[in-house]
Specification:
The protein is of the alpha+beta class and about 575 residues long. It is about 45% helix and about 15% strand. The chain has 17 helices and 16 strands. Helix 7 packs across helix 10 (about 305-310) and helix 11 (about 345-375) crosses helix 16 (about 470-505). The longest helix is centred in the last third of the chain and has 38 residues, at about 470-505. It is globular and about 105 Å long. The N and C termini lie far apart (about 95 Å). The relative contact order is 0.07.
Length: about 575
């Protein structure tokens, strides 16, 4: 069975900017380069190959292979593609009175519900009287099975081997016909899925307790339950030549910006890679910013957080195989907002949000400030505090920088060990290890007690930030700040902070300024940035989302007391009374 391009069955390996091609049955590998315009592979050592040596290498996408009219050839081609895998089940059906009518059922054990396959596909077809008669043809059998005999909602048609194999790997049962170049695929998927549980990384005291799972369809159904509107749109993509990972682009029509949607679609369609195993793969392929430690795309495993983002004009990306969804565009201030901010009173939410911003600066700058002050600017400290610190450091053999680096690295090792160890003993080991090592280090005179306090409070402040992505960014910046503080003191810290602010002001997330609405300053959209005003005082959607429908609630939503309503009614009556007397 000859299929598509002659390089269709070529195995490709990227080697130092080249692709090494191996054809089945050919032991002589050839080095060739795939043109960036999607043409044929060009030998590297040829004149044209040397000319195009600097062109970017892209994965070769072959032409589709049509199904053969011969059932045996189609089965042979499928067997050649998937090999002799033990979980692939092939069941053939032949009409005894009409040898030309032959069917084949193919499914993968473990991806399908065995009862559904047997009761709704194989048994009805093999026991149907019409299919056993000698008057039935392949065309009539195809139409009969498609329109009348499959009591399943999801039935698809296919004409190529690639399309049918992609459905087979999603849990469909293939129905192949002898004498036809078309096939049917019935949705019989029924593989094991993890049940919906509480999110592990973004817990709340008040609010929904369910999080996304690794199933794409479960994730989209959670959003459907929260957003019961016809404006909710879900576009699905298949990304990854080896994994064929399902990716869902979710947005609200009329609220999400069309420019942002077009840009996200362009970047998703431009991804050519072997595998997508987690949402970070997609994030790195489509994010803005280039070489920056700051994330420009949010990730969350909370359906309510994604629903809230969609209502503010953001676009959600759900990836099959991971419970973490993406939200874009995102600004710097989105990473300090928690779902729980909107589930409790605005004054408490504002207080907690200010604590998060304070914890951000403490986590980033406290060790550096301690190093700078104790090394270069002792005159800034009160005399009693300076004498106390000097007494603590009297027997410490290490400078302040080495002392801070030792404690920071030790704490990072303990935190990583607590994550990797079994869940039952991991937290206990990390807590006990921190206490024992800290006390032992102080007793041995390796570090001062003040440094242990500084590093501990820095680590605790880092956990206050609700977004793990930006918390990890602060960990990297902290080490750089400590090195600068040890060499240039407070002058170096201030210079670095100015450069960092300039860097943040130059970042964009799908066309949205990263520091918006602070830079550029838009005062009326600051109601949900540093603090949260009452919900009735936020009638407009955030400007950062570039949404088309900017108003999200009606005017005059502030609740009124009974006394104010009576006074308002009295004033309204007094205004209407003179008009009635004039008419009389």
């Amino acid at each position: 069975m000859a299929c598509g391009h002659p390089l269709y069955h070529v195995r490709q390996f990227h080697t130092a900017g080249r692709i090494r091609n191996e054809r089945p049955g050919d032991n002589t590998p050839t080095l060739s380069r795939v043109s960036s315009e999607g043409g044929e592979a060009v030998p590297v050592h040829s004149k044209q190959g040397r000319k195009n040596r600097k062109d970017p290498v892209e994965a070769f996408i072959p032409a589709p292979c049509p199904l053969s009219p011969s059932l045996d050839e189609t089965l042979q081609e499928i067997s050649l593609r998937i090999g002799t895998s033990s979980d692939v089940i092939i069941r053939r059906f032949t009409n005894e009175s009409l040898s030309s009518l032959a069917l084949a059922f193919i499914y993968i054990d473990g991806l399908v519900n065995a009862d559904t396959v047997n009761q709704t596909v194989i048994q009805p077809l093999m026991e149907h009287v019409t299919l056993k008669s000698d008057a039935i043809t392949a065309d009539k059998a195809y139409a009969l099975i498609k329109d009348q005999m499959l009591p399943i909602g999801g039935v698809q048609e296919g004409k190529t081997v690639e399309h049918m194999l992609s459905l087979l790997f999603e849990g469909y049962t293939l129905i192949l016909f002898n004498g036809l170049t078309m096939a049917l695929a019935a949705d019989t998927s029924g593989y094991e899925k993890r049940s919906v549980n509480e999110p592990t990384s973004q817990g709340v005291i008040r609010g929904p307790k369910e999080g996304f799972t690794e199933s794409l369809r479960v994730g989209t159904s959670m959003l459907r339950r929260r957003l019961k509107t016809s404006d909710l749109r879900i576009e699905e993509y298949k990304i990854g030549q080896r994994t064929g990972t399902g990716v869902a682009l979710v947005y609200l029509q009329g609220i999400a910006s069309e420019d942002v949607l077009a840009e996200i679609r362009r970047r998703l369609n431009g991804i050519i890679t072997d595998s997508i195993l987690e949402s970070n793969y997609i994030e790195e392929f489509i994010q803005d910013g280039g070489l920056t430690p700051f994330p420009t795309i949010q990730n969350t495993e909370r359906p309510d957080a994604v629903a809230g983002g969609l209502l503010e004009g953001q676009v959600g990306i759900i990836i099959d195989g991971t419970p973490f969804a993406l939200l874009a565009p995102s600004t710097f201030f989105n990473f300090f907002q928690s779902s729980e901010d909107y589930y409790q009173r605005y004054d408490i939410s504002s207080f907690l949000r200010l604590i998060r911003y304070g914890a951000f600066f403490v986590s980033m700058m406290l060790p550096a400030l301690y190093i700078a002050v104790t090394t270069f600017h002792q005159e800034m400290l009160p005399t009693t505090l300076l004498i106390s610190l000097a007494a603590q450091r009297e027997g410490v053999p290490l400078p302040a920088l080495a002392e801070a680096l030792l404690m920071e690295l030790t704490f990072d090792v303990l935190r990583e060990a607590g994550v990797r160890m079994p869940r039952t003993i991991g937290p206990a080991i990390s807590i006990v290890g921190a206490l024992v090592l800290g006390q032992a280090a102080v007793s041995a005179g390796l570090v001062s007690a003040a440094m242990v306090i500084v590093v501990s409070f820095t680590a605790i402040s880092n956990f206050v930030i609700p977004s793990l992505a930006i918390a990890n960014s602060i960990r990297l910046i902290r080490f750089l700040l400590m090195l600068i503080a040890a060499t240039l003191g407070l002058f170096g810290i201030m210079s670095f902070l100015m450069a960092l602010l300039i860097h943040l002001a130059g970042l964009y997330s799908f066309g949205v300024p990263y520091l918006s609405p602070v830079a550029p300053m838009i005062p009326r959209y600051l109601k949900d940035i540093f603090i949260r005003v009452p919900l009735w005082n936020m009638p407009m959607r955030p400007k950062t989302s570039m949404s088309k429908e900017t108003r999200r609630q009606g005017p005059d939503q502030k609740p009124q007391s009974i006394e104010s309503q009576k006074k308002k009614a009295q004033l309204t009556g007094q205004q209407k009374k003179p008009q009635g007397e004039d008419q009389a």
